[in-house]
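Notes from the 1:1 (GR / supervisor)

We went over the backlog. Supervisor wanted to see one worked example end to end before approving the batch request, so GR pasted a single chain during the call. The sequence is below; no edits were made to it. Supervisor asked that the structure be written out right there so they could see what the output format looks like.
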Amino acid sequence: CAATNNVYTLLQTDIDAGTVSNTATADSDETGTTTDAESVALTQAPSMVLTKTGVLDDTVVAPNTESNVGDTITYTFSIQNTGNVTLHNLVVTDPLLPALSCSLASLAPGATQACAATNNVYTLVQADIDAGQVDNTATADSDETGPATDDESVALSQSFGMLLTKTGVLDDTVVAPNTESNVGDTITYTFSIQNTGNTTLHNLV
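Structure output shown during the call:
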């Protein structure tokens, strides 16, 4: 038949379902009704992009001019739905933050949303400062996609310095008389080194 108004426009719920199924009915004066069901498969392409950002707070532990053990990095996470399917049960995990809680119930195609993260603060240890940066990778997953990852590297300020203290103690009892210094008396020296920077020093001689 020469049909009009026979074009259906897809909705997001159709794409999320993956098919459009419907039934048409024909009738005439002479016959009963007859029906035909049709199911049209729709192409689904679920995908997402995770963005992880770390902000260093080097004012937690003095001095504020350098990174110190006990300073913190606060991480935030946002997810963009780059596919054509609504995503569900999105969860972000991070091995650097084992107690991290960061999830979204759903995310529409084209939308970007930050999760309300808790336990998302990392406290610096000496090994981090010695390395000069904190590197780690977060992973986001959902019911519809495979995992999406994002790497983040936060640079840490390093300072190098040391202070040498040398002390000499005279022993004037080696050679008599003990009331004065004599040839053969000795001075014993001791040395101590203070690391005045924020980075571990090696092979001090």
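Supervisor's comment: The chain has a mean pLDDT of 95.
Batch request approved.
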